[in-house]
Amino acid sequence: MQFRGVNELRRMFLDYYERNGHLKMKSFSLVPHNDDSLLLINSGMAPLKPYFTGQEIPPRRRVTTCQKCIRTGDIDNVGKTARHGTFFEMLGNFSFGDYFKKEAIPFAWNFLTKEVGLDPDRLYPSVFEGNETTPADDEAYNIWKDTIGISPERIFKFGKEDNFWEHGEGPCGPCSEIYYDRGAQYGCGKPDCTVGCECDRYVEVWNIVFTQFDNDGKGHYTELIQKNIDTGMGLERLAMVVQDEESIYTVDTNKAILEYIAGLCGVTYHSDLDKDISLRILTDHIKSSTFMISDGIMPSNEGRGYVLRRIIRRAVRHGRKLGITTDFMPEMAKRVIELNKDGYPELFEKQTMILQVLANEEDQFNKTIDAGTNILNDMIAGLEASGAKELAGTDAFKLYDTYGFPLDLTEEMLQDKGFTVDRAGFDACMKEQKDKARKARKHSTYMGADATVYDLIDPSLTSAFTGYDKLVDEGVISVLTTEEEITEALSEGQKGTIVTDVTPFYATMGGQMGDSGVITGPDGEFKVSEAIHLKGGRVGHVGVVTRGMLSKGQKVELKVDEAQRSATAKNHSATHLLQNALRSVLGEHVEQSGAYYDKDRLRFDFTHFKAMGAEELAKVEKMVNAEVAANNDVVTKVMSLEDAKATGAMALFGEKYGDEVRVVSMGPSTELCGGTHVKRTGDIGSFRIISESGIAAGVRRIEALTSQNLLDYYKNIESELIEAASIVKAQPKDLKKKLSQMMDELKALKSENDKLKTELAGNSLGDAAANAVDVNGVKVLCLKADAADVGALRSLCDNLADQLGDCVIVLGAEIGGKATLIASATDSAVKKGAMAGNIIKEIAPVVGGKGGGRPTMAQAGGSDIAAIPAALDKAIEVIKSQIK
């Protein structure tokens, strides 16, 4: 059989189905669109759900894709087996009510045998055998036997677990899988080894799902009127079979990455089992993280960002295990991009940003490892002092969850010191966290979104948008809805949504707030509060009937609020100039992560890895205002996506673009954009950055104002300035000087006040040091004190320690109506076993509180003031048990 690489197999598959009448579509983003049931796209059909359910009309009834996917459910097995990986590409051909089994099965068979050249005698199909609720798939069986010509003994029948696809209630159906016999060398050697065996000999390469039933969720199945085809074939698995490789990690593109990594760390693949596992993990994880970042996913502590962070940090950890001490993730990513840019050109387009994100996250994790090591060392010191041999599972989980410290590293460091981890306790904490996350996940339907009245609208209805050129137009009402159902009419006072065949209203989309305005009919008037984007290219005008009644089929006038549209357009256009300025000042790693613009303000989220300095902000602001002053024309052109990219136009992460796109240019900025804009940059008037802040790891946010909103902002500041000057009895021009004088006076008074508090607290105890007791050579003092605040109590603690020398001190006080406890231990006392943090953990519950800290200093707060003496008594007992 001829050698065929991964990139060639991908092209062959897509070209084959394109020749057979399918629309070849590019891979969708890994970020699900309008689907709360998924964090990440994990199958070829996931982005196509709206077409399968009929909620949206597909661009063609036959479609083929190669979809990038991420699955992390088996992440702990990645690298340990030949099959598991977090990243994979899924080849698929889909029919939305067009062809069915008699076409789908021959399509698959001919591709594998005639196009790719697999030996027909090594291919084995399987079909659904049926059960008490669902009939056997005799139709598929007969096609394999009679049309394809496969003998009955080579057609396997399996049950629902293997050969029936369903996901709760909704569309479902039997499936037919195609297995390939890789040869006895990959088998288990058992005499009964055959298709369905768990060994690696018979591998499933293709799954053809026949979506022909609707499951009501109660075990009842009815035939669908529109039957669909959904197929999936793992590209890497197909390549493994075609190239006769041992695993997905040694197919040509993955092997090139693996060998590059092996070269980086100076090891040879297949020379050491543990090192092989690390090499495979790195090979998989660098692909996953590179592709995820290219789709705009940023490392964070929640959602898909947490998945990415975990994958990156797991890779860094295994890089360390292989002996790589320098930053290496960006270098590996360059190799991934080079090998995959033909199928996914966005990797090359986003290369600068991908490398920057990886470098930043790797650096952060290295610092985390160092910080976590220090914390673990404190925990080890505590174990040594107490004589315990096992680290609590809660402590190990805290290191893992709060500090990102890997459990295997915790175990390794503990093992070196002769300690173990309570794995059962750790697993219990992990389960609790997963249960919380599962409960917090939004309830959703098959579509991954809560059902709404809009799902009932006929998907063939659309709205033609005319708002680029006009703010007033006429249309015919095609649908009216209340908040709960579709209706024939809306009357005065009723809230609802109106859909028309033509509209000048821009619907909320791409960060731009939708238009408001008025719809006027022959019998009534409807005030539009917001225009929203509905599935299938429809625009919903949301609002309330203010007069009379509006009915389906009526011809109406639609009038957009001109002032709101104008103010929103100014903010939107300013955002384009802002992004261009940010890339010029900060670098090409800047990419839009989110945006919002309405009539009042603009907000722009972008990738950058540290706070912007005052000089950078001033430079960006100056560049934007220079473009505003230049009063350049804002030019809009409609062209093909390829032509648009050739112009250098910026595109948004994860955005679904059609064959034709709208390109908006103003001065040095060129972007793909469907929003509304000013006619000339001078219309923006003026631009001012109000704030810059971090909203997630590697993501910054700028908020800004333009035009009249900026003038109003300055007027408000001026008013507050005059009022502030009046309060301190100064003129506005002298306010700065006056405030400086007042701050100096306050600073002097505070210093004097703190000194008096400390003196008073000390006087209240008298010669307290004389009351210290000796515990095995360490002076111990536990007292109730009078202190105005925690700072005074801490100062008192320090003063007493200076008097006593080698000591442990525990003080309790009523501060702000609550009990406060502080414990301190000198370094010499810690060496003898004293641990301030553990003392506080033991005594805090006595006052109804909790707390902790370092071995040398810790504090706690509680609600039971009367229990302070009892807590101090217990402190004596705890200290005696520590110092042996």
Description:
The chain is an alpha+beta fold. The model is unreliable at 440-448 (pLDDT under 50). The strands form seven sheets. Strands 1, 2, 3, 4, 5, 6, 7, 8 and 9 form a nine-stranded mixed sheet that branches. Strands 13-16-20-19-18-21 form a six-stranded antiparallel barrel. A six-stranded mixed sheet has the order 29-30-31-32-34-33, sandwiched between helices. The N and C termini lie far apart (76 Å). The protein contains 24 helices and 34 strands.
In short:
It is built from 24 helices and 34 strands. It is of the alpha+beta class and 884 residues long. A hairpin with a 3-residue loop joins strand 18 and strand 19 (524-534).
What layout of secondary structure does this protein have?
Blueprint: H1 6-19, E1 23-25, H2 49-53, E2 62-70, E3 87-96, H3 101-116, E4 123-128, H4 138-148, E5 156-158, H5 160-163, E6 164-165, E7 170-181, E8 202-215, E9 221-234, H6 235-242, H7 252-265, H8 273-294, H9 303-321, H10 329-340, H11 346-349, H12 351-386, E10 390-391, H13 393-403, H14 407-416, E11 420-421, H15 423-440, E12 464-465, E13 472-481, E14 486-487, E15 489-491, E16 495-500, E17 502-503, E18 517-520, E19 524-534, E20 538-551, E21 555-560, H16 562-586, E22 592-597, E23 602-607, H17 614-630, E24 634-640, H18 641-646, E25 660-666, E26 669-672, E27 687-696, E28 699-706, H19 707-727, H20 735-765, E29 773-775, E30 778-784, H21 790-804, E31 807-815, E32 818-825, H22 827-831, H23 836-843, E33 850-853, E34 857-862, H24 868-882
Helix pairs in contact: 1-3, 3-4, 7-8, 7-10, 8-9, 8-12, 9-12, 10-12, 13-15, 16-17, 20-21, 23-24
